[in-house]
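#onboarding

Welcome to the new folks! Below is a worked example of what a typical request in this channel looks like: someone posts a single protein sequence, and someone else replies with the predicted structure as tokens. Don't worry about understanding the tokens yet, we'll cover that in week two.

Example request:
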Amino acid sequence: MSVNSLPPLVDFQTQWIESQGTDLFNPEALQLEAALEFMQAYTANRRNTLGTETIPLESALGRVLNKDIIALMDVPPADNSAMDGFAFNSQALQQATPISLDIIGTRLATSADSTDAKNQEIKFTNSVVFDPSQHAYRIMTGAVMPAACDTVIPQEFTEQIQQTISFDPTRIQAGDNRRLQGEDLRIGTVCIPKGRIIGPSDMGLIASMGISTIEVYEKLTVAVFSTGDELKALGSELTPGAIFDSNRYTLLGMLQNLGVNTIDLGIIPDHPEALRNAFASAASLADAIITSGGVSVGQADFTKQVMRELGDVAFWTLAIKPGRPMAFGKIKQNQHEAVLFGLPGNPVAVMITFYQFVQDTLNWMGGASNFKQLIHQAHWVGKFKKRSGRTEFLRGFLHQNTAGLNCVEPIGNQGSGVLSSMSQANCLVILPPELTQIEDGDLVNIVAIQK
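Example response:
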């Protein structure tokens, strides 16, 4: 990406605000939705210049599809049985109870001549012509339906004596257990759209059409490092006032779920030259840089200074809790630039800002279109008050009460440094800016936490 591909951040902010016709973008109290929209607008150029590659289907999980997958055939390619049982013509259901039918053949799922019989009257080796009122056909799951048959009764619903079956017609209706040709996919239709993050079911669907390779967007590369003289590497001795670096491992874990390449630059001390080298190295190698710490108001370290020296970076106060301070912009190095996410230092704030801003923006940059978090609702347990004007995220535990209702209650200490609460929680409760109080039983919005 050229260093001139985007205007300076301040100019871009002005242009974006004017295009939106809104004053929502206030760096002193930036609302969640406005920040995310701005991030996507600012990174649209990287999204539009992504390269592509062709990969084997078995490597497709988590990758972003570059072009629509068009169905090359009907799936299933022919009417077939959904059960092990007996295929017959539903005209037989008009007979008196119980219905008795003679078995005059067997259809296996692997039978090579099954498709030959698909559109013609079936004749058997004993030259018996299929009679809808008298005959049935033993059939296995997935086997092509005989042309004269339209219904399959499961074998457990029948009684068989030699080559005759009998069954109660009230156990079956016309058309039951018959998969129709093309009921899953019709030839020529878009079965998986461009921009889909490929999941396991998508892989199976693509395989069902005989497609072995797909075209996807190139992976983004994300560099991660932590800043702070107080941080110690795992395995080292903790001195007074020091803490182990946990944020970097949290970030690397969350990035693994996004299907990006990661570069771990470790812990960078609070020294200008070390920070300059780290940012410059990251910007030359990666599409995005994620740091934690060094962006709070009033901090007396060199991180902000170096960010400003090497790129166009804004420091925002987000109208959310936890996670108020955040840096966003780009770092330049030679003819390359990387988008910067400077996250807070508190562990919970790191995770909240990642899930709410970084995750969606990286998915967007990587070409994805199906990346929005699914919001559900549950009944709140207890009472809670909050300050108006900001979105709050509470760590919660979702469960069903004795009445079968989905309920959520807060987990332990909600402090932004209490990482154990994120580990214990199974969801985040989202309280919008205008809300100031919730009562016991009120419906609240929740999103699942990726474990």
